[in-house]
Structures are given as structure tokens and as C-alpha cells.
Amino acid sequence: MENETVTAYVGIGSNLGDRAGNLLLGVRGLMEASFQVTKLSAIYETEPVGLDDDAPAFLNMVAEIRANGITPTQMLARMLRIEYLLGRTDKSLKKPRTIDLDLLFYEQEHVDTPFLTVPHPRAHLRRFVLIPMNEICPNYNHSLLHKDIGLLLAECPDNSNVARWYPHTRESIHASSSG
């Protein structure tokens, strides 16, 4: 894998502070970590899944990245560093966050360690992952489920609200659902 170029997909999310600015800083961090960002989905505003009802709505997107000579574990280490540099020090689930970078897919590889599982174990269950993935790579085949993203989206049991985000033109999901 020394000079082999690999393609991976990274979920990027934020629900604290300047959410859109945090996404931009996350993309910039990926580029500064020597990843080539080849595709970006639109930004989607999404209900927080698995968090308290009063948690702020997320902005989410997916990036297709390419890198040379890097393992999934090395990729994760760089992503954790980006999160840390952008103010995320608590990686526990079910908490609001300034930035969240998730390695969704790494080529067609399977990784299952205490620190990393690829493909992401819940990617196929989350509309906030599948909708932006479907936008940039609808024919990508999930290596364990043997279904493409479009079919996984059609079969997804998640019914949370995921809407394309347009700055300054719409109320947020959280504000509109509480009023």
C-alpha cells in the first residue's frame, strides 16, 4: 500500500457554534492532513439522532477523499487530530459536538478493531449519511451488505428529518419542530 491511492468517504457533522464554519474547517483540516478532497456533498440540516430532544440540529455532509500510502488506522488518527484541533476533546457518543469526522468507507476494506470499524457500523441506518452519500456516489457498493447506496437509502428504517441546508433562507429544523 506504499504508494497506492485509496478512496475513502468521510462523514462531517457539527451541531455546536458556527456549524457551517466548523464543516468548512473540517474540510480544510482534511486537506491539510494530506488528503485530496475530490467530492463534497451539499450540506444537510438534520435532526440529532440518538441525542436528547433539546440538542441542536446538525449540519452534515460527506466528503470523498483520496490519499496515498495510508492505512485506515492512520487515516483515523489524522481525523482525530483534526477533531482535537477544532475543539472536540470528548469523543463519547450522544453528546453535541463542534465537529465530528467519521470514516464511513475505505475502499472495499473491512476493519474491525476496538478503535475502528469500517464500513461504519451504522452508516446504512442513518439518512444523514445515506442522503449525502447518495448525492456523490449512489452506485457505491457497501462491501458487507452488498447493496449500493441508493438501495440502502430506499430501505433505510430511519425516518429522521434531513433537509438540504440553505443559509439564511430557512428556519432550522430544531426551531421549526419546536414551534
Using the coordinates shown, work out and report the CATH topology. Answer: Alpha-Beta Plaits
- Please name the fourth-level CATH homologous superfamily: 7,8-Dihydro-6-hydroxymethylpterin-pyrophosphokinase HPPK
> Count of DSSP helices?
5
- How is the biggest beta sheet arranged? 6 strands, antiparallel
How many β-strand stretches? 8
How big is the Rg? 16 Å
CATH class: Alpha Beta
Distance between the termini: 53 Å
| Element string (H = helix, E = strand) | EHEEEHEEEHHEH
Percent of sequence in beta strands:
15-25%
Describe the global form.
globular
Protein structure class = alpha+beta
Helicity range: 25-40%
Unreliable runs: 174-179
Total of domains: 1
CATH architecture: 2-Layer Sandwich
**What is the arithmetic mean of pLDDT?**
90
Which secondary structure elements does this structure contain, and how are they paired or packed?
Blueprint: E1 5-14, H1 19-32, E2 36-40, E3 44-46, E4 58-68, H2 72-85, E5 100-106, E6 111-112, E7 117-118, H3 127-136, H4 149-155, E8 162-164, H5 173-178
Antiparallel strand pairs: 1-4, 1-5, 2-4, 3-4, 3-8, 6-7
Helix pairs in contact: 3-4
Report on this model:
This protein is an alpha+beta fold. The protein has a single domain, classed as 2-Layer Sandwich (Alpha-Beta Plaits). Helices cover 28% and strands 24% of the residues. The strands form 2 sheets. Strands 1, 2, 3, 4, 5 and 8 form a 6-stranded antiparallel sheet that branches. The protein has a two-stranded antiparallel ribbon with strand order 6-7. Helix 3 packs antiparallel against helix 4. The longest helix is centred in the N-terminal third of the chain and has 14 residues. The C terminus is likely disordered.
